[in-house]
Design a protein that fits this description.
mainly beta, single chain, 8-stranded antiparallel β-sheet
């Protein structure tokens, strides 16, 4: 047992030094609401900072409007891609419709401005070769359809919370080189290691 623990510790140190970071999601209402249903304030996650990023990856980027903050969004468009948002997400003419409800079809998310609980539905959508969970508020803001062609060297981000977002719909496409860190695994949630429901979860 001691040998196994020692080997695991050595591997963890090597991974930490070569390609992984550990990050605790800050207590930021706007950021936390935008990440539902996959992440929330207080989550301790692993961030992969080496390798290429592509469509469907959940990335951490400096907020282009406030470098003291982070934004977390899923890449839905890269250089030259044509992205259409409004009811249904379309990338280069291909529709990405919601497939089915999540295992837990509803969740409560604190409102990004006043913190009041808002009921959301949870659905799954296929994007970038994998299935991802997204959230939407029944009484969330309705937005007009819009289309955007992603410029050279940029990426278009979309929050997993499609209603209370903090993404390229708010600040435009961002420089790709600032969005190279992929969030892919939650170690545990804000209630700590012993909260089994939020522990050791691969973030798709």
């Amino acid at each position: 047992m001691a040998w196994a623990a020692g080997i695991f510790a050595v591997l963890a140190i090597i991974a930490r030094l070569t390609f992984l970071k550990v990050w605790t999601v800050p207590d930021d209402r706007v950021l936390s609401a935008s990440m539902a249903p996959n992440l929330a304030a207080g989550d301790v996650v692993l961030v992969l900072y080496r390798g290429e990023r592509g469509i469907g990856d959940l990335v951490r980027c400096p907020d282009p409007e406030d470098p003291q903050r982070w934004v977390v969004g899923r890449i839905i468009g890269m250089s030259g891609d044509r992205v259409s948002i409004g009811g249904t997400l379309t990338i280069n003419g291909k529709r990405y419709d919601v497939s089915e409800a999540c295992a837990e079809s509803t969740l409560t998310v604190p409102h990004p401005t006043d913190g009041r609980p808002v009921e959301h539905t949870c659905s799954r959508v296929e994007l970038g070769g994998d299935w991802h969970q997204i959230a939407g508020a029944a009484d969330g803001p309705r937005e007009a359809a819009r289309e955007h062609t992603v410029g050279a060297g940029r990426v278009f981000l979309m929050s997993d919370n499609r209603s209370y977002h903090d993404d390229s719909r708010d600040f435009g496409a961002v420089v790709a080189d600032t969005c190279t860190e992929q969030i892919f695994f939650r170690l545990w949630g804000k209630d700590g290691f012993f909260d089994e429901k939020r522990r050791f979860i691969y973030i798709r």
